[in-house]
């Protein structure tokens, strides 16, 4: 991660924090987790929350982030790393809330692990068009 840029990030970017009005983007809410860090880190919740809502939307966020250019291996390595790291914090956060919240996050965590073939693959199956629920 040496040499990675440090940029302002929302750090809780997912569909529940995106406002839509009349089928158009209207804004983003919930900035209490904002911080500075690797811009790729701001995408780490896509496989947890956005994928559950829409795989095409989730792919679009990644493609839009890269302005529809070819994604390189280093992006996916960092994306997979940040996704794996998020599993730990998500489960700890869920345990502190409720058993129900923990169970939801455990399911999402297991989905992320499956999508990355136990992290033997850095590109998630939902992006690589190999998604089977």
From TrEMBL:
Which classification does the entry list for the species? Bacteria, Bacillati, Bacillota, Bacilli, Bacillales
Keyword match Kinase: yes
> Could you tell me which Pfam families the record lists for this protein?
APH
Domain spans labelled Aminoglycoside phosphotransferase = 5-66
The organism encoding this protein is: Thermaerobacillus caldiproteolyticus
Kinase as a keyword of this entry, yes or no, is yes
- This one is known as Aminoglycoside phosphotransferase (APT) family kinase protein
Q: Which InterPro entries does the UniProt entry name for this protein? A: Aminoglycoside_PTrfase, Kinase-like_dom_sf
Q: Which UniProt keywords apply?
A: Kinase, Transferase
**One Gene Ontology term of the molecular function aspect:** kinase activity
């Amino acid at each position: 991660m040496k040499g990675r840029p440090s940029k302002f990030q929302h750090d809780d970017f997912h569909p529940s924090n995106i406002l839509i009005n009349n089928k158009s983007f209207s804004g983003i809410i919930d900035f209490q987790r904002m911080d500075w860090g690797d811009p790729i880190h701001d995408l780490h919740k896509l496989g947890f929350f956005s994928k559950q809502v829409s795989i095409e939307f989730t792919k679009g966020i990644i493609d839009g982030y890269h302005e529809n250019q070819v994604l390189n291996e280093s992006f996916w390595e960092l994306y997979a790393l940040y996704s794996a790291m998020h599993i730990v914090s998500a489960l700890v956060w869920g345990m502190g809330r409720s058993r129900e919240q923990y169970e939801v996050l455990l399911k999402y965590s297991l989905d992320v692990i499956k999508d990355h073939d136990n992290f033997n693959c850095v590109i998630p199956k939902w992006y690589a068009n190999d998604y089977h629920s």
